[in-house]
Amino acid sequence: MRKILLLPMFLFFSFTGFAQIEGPTTVQQNHNLLSGLDAPNEGVGIKGGVNFSRVHGSDKDNLGDVSGHTNFHAGVFAQFALTEFFSIQPEVLYSRTGYERNDSTFRFNYFDVPVLAVFNISDNFSVHLGPQVGLMIASKEDGSEIDLGPYNTFSYGAAAGLEGRINRFRLGARYVHGLADLRKEDDAGNSIDQDIKNGVIQVYIGIGF
pLDDT digit string (tens) for 6-19? Predict the structure, then answer.
C-alpha cells in the first residue's frame, strides 16, 4: 500500500523536477513574463471539489436499477507555459467514484493523473483537454471493503473542461469519460467482456501559488 501511495507523488514531483532542470530555453525565459498572480497559464497549486459519477456502456442495463453517486476529489497541479496561449497541466488527484444499485452504494477510490493541454481564451478563462490514467486502490460496498480482484485496477480515459480564474483562485468544471471497462471478472472469477465504464463530472475550486 505504501508503494501505491508514493506512486502519484513521484509522478507529480517528476513533472515539476523536469521543468526545473531544463536549460534556459526561450520558453523558460518567457516564464519571467508569465510569473506571479498575473500569469494566466503558469504555476502550481492545490484543488478539490465534487464528483458526480455515473456508469455508462452497452451493458449498463445488466446492473439493474442504477443511479449516480456523489463524492469528492482533491489533489495538486502544476502548469507549465509554452506560449501565452498554450500550456501543459499535469495533476495528481485522489478521486472517489461509484454508483448506487438496489439501495447499495458501490464506491471506487482512485489515484488519477490527468495531463491536460490548456488553451487560454483570455487571461481569466481557459479550455482543458487531455488524457487521464488512474489506479484503483480500493473498492467498497456500503462502506465495507470488497475484493479488487474482479476489477480493472488500471483505468484510462479522456478529460475536457472549462476553467475561470480570478487572481490566485480557479473555478472549473470537467467531464472525464472512462474508456476502460470497470470489471474484468464476474463474482465467480471467470473472465468477462463487460462494457461498463466510469464517467465523472467534476466541479472544483483551486488555489495557485
Answer: 444 444 444 444 44
